[in-house]
């Protein structure tokens, strides 16, 4: 699968490495020059190429790996109506006060979907520290396999992301629609929380009981 990346920080680099290792082709982009990506592309190998943001958003799946406050700066809608994997996190002290997000009147990924005019946004990979993720993959069926909480309103888009998660060595944990993704946000009980499917379910149950 061809996967576009907007953002090449720790999140973008780690996920690109995992996707390339699983046999996918990635198109890396950021707000700086295409040439400045050459060292990263050399490290990722033949299944990676550099491009502009305009190139990245033309891919069938686009990984949104930018600071949350940069979402409003992106051109919308993306051409071809791709699946958008939203790995962003909203931090008020960095991104500014957005009251409907702070009050949980809207999930952050709903905000992203509205800004990018897309019904194919899938929230995922925002709860795991990227410095550790490349050492975490385990084979299918491993009882210690780490689960990745995801949420999305489009069933087909979510299934595609679930398949990708499985391919790179993790179990998807479906929270439901984007409105159900609040537990996975930066102020939720699953943030920076690593565990199996059973452990994720237990944490959610404990949080709901409070």
TrEMBL record:
<dbReference type="InterPro" id="IPR051267">
    <property type="entry name" value="STEAP_metalloreductase"/>
</dbReference>
<protein>
    <recommendedName>
        <fullName>Pyrroline-5-carboxylate reductase catalytic N-terminal domain-containing protein</fullName>
    </recommendedName>
</protein>
<dbReference type="Pfam" id="PF03807">
    <property type="entry name" value="F420_oxidored"/>
</dbReference>
<keyword id="KW-0560">Oxidoreductase</keyword>
<feature type="domain" description="Pyrroline-5-carboxylate reductase catalytic N-terminal">
    <location>
        <begin position="3"/>
        <end position="90"/>
    </location>
</feature>
<dbReference type="InterPro" id="IPR028939">
    <property type="entry name" value="P5C_Rdtase_cat_N"/>
</dbReference>
<dbReference type="GO" id="GO:0016491">
    <property type="term" value="F:oxidoreductase activity"/>
</dbReference>
<dbReference type="InterPro" id="IPR036291">
    <property type="entry name" value="NAD(P)-bd_dom_sf"/>
</dbReference>
């Amino acid at each position: 699968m061809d996967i576009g990346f907007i953002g090449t920080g720790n999140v973008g680099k780690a996920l690109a490495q995992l996707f390339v290792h699983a046999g996918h082709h990635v198109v890396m982009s950021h707000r700086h020059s295409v040439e400045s990506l050459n060292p990263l592309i050399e490290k990722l190998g033949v299944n990676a190429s550099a491009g502009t943001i305009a190139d990245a958003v033309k891919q069938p799946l686009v990984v949104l790996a930018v600071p949350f406050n940069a979402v409003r700066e992106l051109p919308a809608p993306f051409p071809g109506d791709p699946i958008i994997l939203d790995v962003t996190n909203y931090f008020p002290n960095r991104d500014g006060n957005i009251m409907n997000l702070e009050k949980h009147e809207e999930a952050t990924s709903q905000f992203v979907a509205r800004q990018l005019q897309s019904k194919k946004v899938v929230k995922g990979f925002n709860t795991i520290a990227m410095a550790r993720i490349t050492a975490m993959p385990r084979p299918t069926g491993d009882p210690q396999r780490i689960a990745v909480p995801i949420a999305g309103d489009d069933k087909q888009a979510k299934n595609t992301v679930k398949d990708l998660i499985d391919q790179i060595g993790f179990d998807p944990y479906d929270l439901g629609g984007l409105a159900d993704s609040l537990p996975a946000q930066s102020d939720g009980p699953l943030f920076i929380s690593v565990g199996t499917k059973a452990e994720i379910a237990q944490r959610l149950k404990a949080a709901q009981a409070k």
